[in-house]
Amino acid sequence: MARIIGGIGTSHVPTIALAYDRGRQNEPAWEPLFEGYRPVAKWLAEQNPDVLVVFYNDHATTFFFDMYPTFAIGIGEHFPIADEGAGLRGLPDIRGDVEFQAHIAEALVNDEFDLAFFQSRPIDHGVASPLPLLWPHEPDWPGTVVPIAINVLQYPLPTARRCYRLGQAVRRAIESYPEDLRVVVVGTGGLSHQIHGERTGFNNTAWDLEFLDTFIRNPKKLTELRHADYVRLGGAESVEQIMWLAMRGVLSEDIYEIHRNYYLATTTAMTVVLYGEGVAPGAQQIAAAQTGLD
């Protein structure tokens, strides 16, 4: 059967994509961020997963506010990378495994999650910003993606608990798939940040680190928070953290942190964290890096 081998939590800030495309990885302002992704890319290369299941939010690219679903899953062989105003990126289309995507979709509906489905629509920076930092892409991506979009833009939003339960249902779906696939689950979205209104530029490093620590030990505590709690603690856009909880729901009860990089260079806290399933093989194998906190 398909097997989950780990999870990744990552920011999907659109300026990461711009910096990557323009070759700015070694500039002083950007190098600490990109350096943090290298251990994750190395781990993925070593583990060689067949599929990334990615929880993300669409930024009015695939959907618009006249019809914006709570949960949606992409089913298709190819999804183009969206042009979000900076021109087409030099990336191949995201590839999909239709049979696996359709299996997850059917399993979720049978598990009483009513989804929207989309095919061949462009996917924006919610997935495409961190993806080339995780996987090589020349001449093509090494595996397929199951894109699962979560509404964090237009109220009413799904609760943190509902997102966690969605992840648990996705785990059941993956483990019921008969083919031998190696699966990594990815949750994208920012930690503390607010990019509009009176609190523009707001960050809360103490809350970010508390969230990351609680995420491992006691994720159910995080599911008890209301959207207003996430906004109060981390800024309006930090409600994206509920997408991390969908990723956490897919993982087993016992996970350990392999690598963490937290970088606060601008108005947005940017991070990437790698988690392994099961009991940690040894403290010496857990590397944590926290950068730019001064």
Automatic annotation (TrEMBL):
Keywords from the named record: Dioxygenase, Oxidoreductase
InterPro entries cross-referenced by the UniProt entry: Xdiol_dOase_suB
Residues of the Extradiol ring-cleavage dioxygenase class III enzyme subunit B domain: 8-273
Keyword Oxidoreductase belongs to the record: yes
Source organism: Paraburkholderia metrosideri
The protein's name in its UniProt record: Gallate dioxygenase
Example of a GO MF term: gallate dioxygenase activity
A Pfam family assignment: LigB
Top-rank EC class of the record's enzyme: oxidoreductase
Statement: the UniProt record of this protein carries the keyword Phosphoprotein: no
EC number: 1.13.11.57
Gene3D superfamilies per UniProt: LigB-like (3.40.830.10)
SUPFAM superfamilies named among the record's database cross-references: LigB-like
